[in-house]
Amino acid sequence: MRVVLLCRYDGSGYHGFQIQPNNNTVQEEIEKALKKINKKDIRVYMSGRTDSGVHAYGQVLHFDTELNIPNEAWKKALNANLPADIRIFGVTTSNEDFHVRYNSTRKTYHYKLYIGQNVDPFLLNYVGQHKYNFNFEKAQKALNYFIGEHDFSSFCSKNSSVEDKIREIYYFNMYYDKTNPRVINFDVCGNGFLYNMVRIIIGTIQDVAAGKYGAEYVKEILDKKERKYAGPKADAAGLYLKEVIYNNEEINKFIKEGLAKYENI
Prior knowledge:
The structure is a single chain. Helix 1 packs across helix 2 and helix 3 crosses helix 4. It contains six helices and ten strands, in the order E-H-E-E-H-E-E-E-H-E-E-E-H-H-E-H. It is α+β, with helices and mostly antiparallel strands. Helices cover about 25% and strands about 30% of the residues. Strands 1, 2, 3, 4, 5, 6, 7, 8, 9 and 10 form a ten-stranded mixed beta sheet that branches. The longest helix is centred in the first third of the chain and has 13 residues, at about 25-40.
């Protein structure tokens, strides 16, 4: 049986999602919980890995098991064996043709950017920081250049092994947070993202907003196809995997209904 999970986690206490030697990760914690329930090692697959300090509102996972347990019982059993900063909030089943990574058609990431010299300590692990003047209009012009299909080589970490760096951005929104005027939110949706792509894009927009260069320079950065021309990586703490969409109507309905419980994000 292939079991599909919707997972939320606070990534500030983990070295990313994917298992690493000698570091605690979200995947390791979930697989430890699965081992207790299944009495053997179970591998869990992710829709996409998140780096150290990055969070998830809607990470999608799957694993295969011989156990026949009701969905609600899976959720209760897993959460009973997981740390409080990792929660399973949706469980369904699918056939073996479905894969959470290879069948995804679009992903949405959310980024929270705090404007100011001193971050509220209660927000420290959940926002990126911009210490300087932030020109909202210039930033808005800059993010428009990212929409559409482009070669994002300039916005990918050098150690990426991916050869095809063409991706399409469907929408890219920026807006002030309703509860905190010092926080600016970003939502970016595309058919896929390269390693550190979102953080480098946000870092570049920060440079534009601070007046380091004009918004139109983003097009030149894209055309140059070299990492050195783009801005720095934005802080990991501000990044959240928000939603994953698939070429599977039943799975998409499952995800939409699960995320609807948390519309305040």
